[in-house]
Each structure stands twice: as C-alpha cells, then as structure tokens.
Design goal:
Elements (H helix, E strand, L loop, with lengths): L1 H18 L9 H14 L7 H28 L4 H16 L4 H17 L4 H39 L1
Helix pairs in contact: 1-2, 2-3, 2-6, 3-4, 3-6, 4-5, 5-6
C-alpha cells in the first residue's frame, strides 16, 4: 500500500516537473529529481540508485543554468552589446514579476531589443539580437525536454523492470 502511495506522489512530481519545462512558474527537472529521490528513499535505493540521483542532480543543475543563461548566450551569439545583454537580464526580471508565463518568454526578448536601441543600434540589429535571445530560449527548452525524457525513461524502466 505504501509503495503505491509513494509511486503516485513520485509520479505527480515527475509530471509536474515535465510541465515545468513550459510553465515557468513550476520548477522543472528539480521536481523530477525530487520524485526520483522520494522513490529512492522509500524503496531503499533499489528502484532509484544513488548513481541515478547524482546524474539526475547534474541534469537538474544544468537545467537551472540553462534557464538563466540561454537567452543571454543566444543574444550574444547574434551580436548583442553589453546593453543588449543587460536588457535581457532586466527583461527576465520584469517577466518573472509579471503575471502570466508568457512574460517570462517575451520580456527578455523585448529587453534585449530595448537595450540595443538605447545603445544606439539600428532596429534591424536590435531585432536580430532579440531573435537570438528567443532562439536561445527555444534551445534551452529543447535540451530540457531531452534531459527530462532521459530521466523519465530511466525511472520508468527501473520501476517496471523490478
């Protein structure tokens, strides 16, 4: 009976974690890690090994870094100035403060464009930097989906197999 309850709680955390990739108000791979950790503890690390937890922790850490660096690196790759990168960070902070997850996506893009325009760049170059910011975000979502898929598949195989 306890195993079923723990399995349901762990599964809910994993599902919420996967949803967190596209819903920024939810943590993403951290929740998947938490679900795996709970399952590991309650199965005495038979289903989820310590090595799995270390790897899942590394994946969760990478996800956290991607959240904050992807837009900045994408903008930089497309020629952002310091003002554009500062605009990206300011936009991210504003996006987090505003209600609605869409603002976390669009405000860093707007911030990078505004930063570029304020530094004297033409609208074409500023838009290019904004595009780079958005592509950086999309890249981070792709990588996080890939990492989450690996984590979830590994968990499912371990739970079903044993």
């Amino acid at each position: 009976m306890w195993y079923i309850i723990v399995l349901i709680i762990s599964s809910l955390l994993v599902i919420l974690g996967f949803l967190g990739i596209v819903l920024p108000f939810l943590p993403d791979l951290i929740l998947i890690f938490a679900g795996a950790l709970i399952l590991g503890i309650f199965t005495h690390f038979e289903k989820v090994t310590p090595l799995m937890l270390v790897i899942f922790g590394i994946f969760a850490g990478l996800s956290f870094l991607l959240d904050y660096l992807s837009g900045i690196l994408g903008a930089k790759k497309f020629g952002a100035s310091v003002a554009g990168m500062v605009g990206t960070v300011v936009g991210l902070i504003v996006g987090i403060a505003l209600p609605g997850f869409i603002f976390i996506i669009i405000m860093p893009v707007i911030g990078s464009i505004v930063g570029e325009l304020l530094s004297g760049r033409e609208i074409g170059q500023a838009s290019k930097v904004g595009l780079g910011n958005f592509l950086g975000f999309l890249f981070s979502v792709f990588i996080k989906v890939l990492l989450a898929g690996i984590m979830i598949a590994w968990l499912v195989v371990r739970v079903v197999r044993q």
